[in-house]
Amino acid sequence: MGKRKLTMRRKESIYGYIFILPFIVGFFAFTAGPLLFSLAGSFTDYNITSQMNFTGVENYQSLITEDGLFRTSLWNTIYYVAFSVPLTTIGAIFISSLLNQQVPGIRYFRTLYYLPAVLSGVGVYLLWMQLLEPGTGMVNLVLGWVGIDGPNWLYDPDWTKPSLILMKLWSVGGSMLLYLASMQGVSKNLYEAAEIDGASRLRQFFHITIPMITPVIFFDVVTSTIGGFQIFQEAYIMSGNGEGGPANSLLFYNLYMWNQAFENFNMGYAMAMSWILFVIVFVLTIINLKLAPRWVHYEGEEK
Amino acid sequence: MKNIRISMLLLTILTLTLSGCAGFQTSNNEEANVNEDGKTVVDFWSFWGSELRRPIIDKIVADFNESQDEIEVRHTYSPWGDIWTKELAAIAAGNPPDVVINDINATAIRGKENQAMNLSEFIDEDFSEKFYPELWEATLYEGDSYGIPFNTDTRVLFYNKDAFEEVGLDPEDPPETWAELEEYATKLDVKENGEYDRLGFYPLWGVGYDVWLLNANGQNYFGEDNNTDTVNINTERNVEVLNWLKSWRERIGEDVVNSYQAQIDSQQGNPFFSGDLAMIVQQPTFYQQISEYAEDLNFGVVQLPEYEPGSGHTSWGGGFVAEIPEGSSDPEAAWEFIEYLTGKEAQTYWAVENFDNIANIEAAEAASESDELTEEGQMVYQIAVESMEDTLLTPAPVEAPGFYNYINPQVDEFFLGQKTAEEALAQAEEDVKNLIEENQ
Amino acid sequence: MAKTNEETKFLDEEDKIENRSVPNTKLRYLEHRGNRNNMWRIFNFVLLAAGSLLILSPLWWMFATSLKTMAEVMSYPPSFFPESWEWTNYIRAWNAAPFTTYTINTITITTFVVIGSVMANSFIAYGFAKIPFRGKSIWFAIVLSTMMIPGFVTLIPQYILFSNLGWVNTYYPLIVPHFFGSAFYIFLLRQFYMTIPTELIEAAKMEGASHFYIWWKIGLPLTKPALATVVIFSFNGAWNDFLGPLLYLNDENLYTLQLGLAVFKGQLSTQWNYLMAGSLLVLLPVILLFFFFQKYFIQGINLSSGGK
């Protein structure tokens, strides 16, 4: 019996590797090389075209001990992640629970709410620059109707990051899609049983829907944290000349890295930056993964 | 399940059909150097893809191809700004195009980093005299040129003549000095119930604070030939200029400034067209927009006012060079094309068709008298050519790449009221000096 | 265990179930709760409609701009409704660059990317979710890690790699990597596979089914909504990709729609009306695809409610 179990396990292992083989092949063929190159490059003065001399930990050292812009950019990025991740997660869950009902015209509503997520590129950011215009822009116009004197948005360093978060909330339809897909998997039996027991809608939402979609919430939190740390294009375009202004309030980590790599050609320095970011995000992800068993509920799991 | 399988099958068939397309044919790197007729092929990349510019550059390329039978230039459009990321990747991979249009301000750095080729072997003694000296100097690294100036720009003052007349100012006598500028602007303001119906002027719409610093100083932040032994950031005059700029902001009001600013930044809706703004500093090509979007506007153009009488109408500009990326397969042929591109004929054609400032002096003068321009066009172009004489560039010294990233945030904080001009400039100067030290 | 049987049963009867009539007892129950439900629906509808306005107003701006003349775009203050509705902007925008060619090219690339993404990622993710094997957590960490390094620093070495393969100026660099999975989708699909009851898979294995068979017959059908999501996301990603085509395509005949749209944004000025018109045209197929693929979500609802 024991022997048979062992071969079973081995057989499973072989299956496992067959299934993940495409990833392993792709990883070694396309990803591993460039990754190692960037790791090696982070210890040099690599400038893309003419030099790559070993400089030891100099890049890391000057980043951590001397570079004020590095610290500013890291702080800006953490601020952005800390607010945008929870807000967009809650927003997406809220909207998708509304969209998961049988309401007239639901197909149109879903398409509509997904629309902003499809729109991408420079056009959208410039559109938002107009909407956020402090004088005649639509956002402040609407705020004015309810008696709020709108802020200067992209011109006030205290409001630039909230501006971007607001814009992110508008296009929350992308993750809405994930939750919607996940809510389809929740059995109607559960709701009907709860209803017969007299549970209110709100109770049903918190005691059935939420626990059942935790795997996707977990996914959303992890990936949008990783993605949030890499925010770039919004700031590149909306800070006017791409420098992260006003007063460096939109100088995000990747924007500063981009400037170092492709404006100043300090690619080695940028590579060091990217590995520092990697460590930060990796640690956060591990924490997330470790915390997951406490709140993520997989229906398929053996208990 | 059936549906999935059928659609998979359909997709596979589609896949096989599509894979016959051109995008799936690999080629080795060496093939494209010679075409079917045995001519040398020169790959030329530019970001001129719009309806307006594309036909002009294509015509220049076609003219060159017809002018001789050794070389065939192939022009490829690549998006503005991103074209240089693409170029860099191609250089790194050792398979770059032969001629690329690039930003003049970074030419020296690109020379230093071996991205662009040293062109001195092709250049004879008086070649450089064809171009505005300020432009030529920006292409030099350790005395050698790494790119040939193609087009350029400058900043001039556009003003609304009707508005001038309305408030009793002579429309043929635009402001000559900063004091006059301020005086006229106040006169041109029309305020009703606390709201502006018309604004006279605000110095920071259309240009940055640095243009006014250049204008007041008549020189760049750095020393002779852009050497970094001298750094002129924290000077008394600069403090004064910043405070002057801020006084406008305080007089007009934060909200009004931000509101107009946002309009101008978003590149839509310019209040000058509608007469809501009486004066604005812009590039000469702004004329083209006026003639398209506000053809009835009665406007005049003049060089930037002087800081004080006699201090000079110093203006600020930039531009583009044609360069040969390091690793080009046939630099000689590439050079021949660059010579044509920056020669009088092509330059004049470009200038007239595009209404653009060009680097070749002789061509610029010819263009300003060209019959193909309207009378108004000639007038604007002449002012532009005059202004070119007083135009400075602000290329980053190789020891201080991206130095403005250290000045701008400080100046932002000054305008936001978080720092005094002295504090902001002192910090900026310290940061830039640190940057220079790091790069020594 | 009862649940497992139920689910396998409705799998087999998938097609029949949708047409099956609802039992009488259930019908009475539904009537009973009808009133309360209607209240909720109205409330829900009102909320959704209000939200739509928020979503739509920026889009209206885009649409209005696409119909203005440039002179009107540049007028101050901006107008909310176009003065004259310039529908010809759409035709002129389309003709400003060879957009028909670009469309064909983009469809080609996108088709491959979607096929590759769906097949590879669902396959790989099944391995991570449902097969226990040694080294799984390390490999999963590697999967996630590939998301964490900013693309800027691997951009140049990756370009050199593809250049050495002779793939520059072909679609291969844009397509082939997608056939080897990408972290985001692997992780996503893994989350969905994790919710499939393990007993279901164990039962299938008892009957001698291999993992391939289980993946194909149970895994794929049960994760349809998630696969639909991957289709939509990967379509959207490939359709809107800018950096990839920018770097790897040198021949303008191979360019994609996003590169074409960049024509309207120049160094000095932007042709806003054309840019917006072009963007909306390019957007259209993505919207249609979404509208069509929604049925997989709705089907999901029918399946679970019919399964009782």
Class inferred from helices and paired strands of chain B: alpha+beta
Q: What is the name of the CATH superfamily of the domain at 97-264 in chain C?
A: MetI-like
Strand content of chain B: 5-15%
- How far apart are the termini of chain B? 68 Å
Oligomer: heterotrimer
CATH top level assignment of the domain at 97-264 in chain C: Mainly Alpha
End-to-end Cα distance of chain C, whole Å, is: 15 Å
Largest sheet of chain B: 6 strands, mixed
**Strand portion of chain C:** under 5%
Mean pLDDT across the residues of chain C is 83
Q: Work out the helix count of chain B.
A: 17
Please state the second-level CATH architecture of the largest domain in chain B.
3-Layer(aba) Sandwich
Largest interface: A-C, 100 and 98 residues
Tell me the CATH topology of the domain at 97-264 in chain C: MetI-like fold
Mean model confidence by pLDDT of chain B: 90
Q: What is the spatial order of strands in the main beta sheet of chain B?
A: 2-1-3-13-6-14
What best-fitting shape of chain C do the alpha-carbon axes yield? Answer: flat
The CATH topology of the largest domain in chain B corresponds to: D-Maltodextrin-Binding Protein, domain 2
Helix content of chain B: 40-55%
Count of DSSP-assigned helices of chain C: 18
Just give the CATH class of the largest domain in chain B: Alpha Beta
Describe this structure in words.
The complex is a heterotrimer of chains A (303), B (440) and C (308). Chain A has 13 helices and no strands. By secondary structure, chain A is mainly alpha-helical. Chain A folds into 2 domains: 1-33; 66-295, MetI-like (MetI-like fold, Orthogonal Bundle), CATH 1.10.3720. Chain B is of the alpha+beta class and 440 residues long. Chain B has 2 domains: 36-153 and 318-393, Periplasmic binding protein-like II (D-Maltodextrin-Binding Protein, domain 2); 156-316, 3-Layer(aba) Sandwich (D-Maltodextrin-Binding Protein, domain 2). Chain B has a 6-stranded mixed β-sheet with strand order 2-1-3-13-6-14. In chain B, strand 8 (190-192) and strand 9 form a beta hairpin. The two termini of chain C are 15 Å apart. The interface between A and C is large, with 100 and 98 residues.
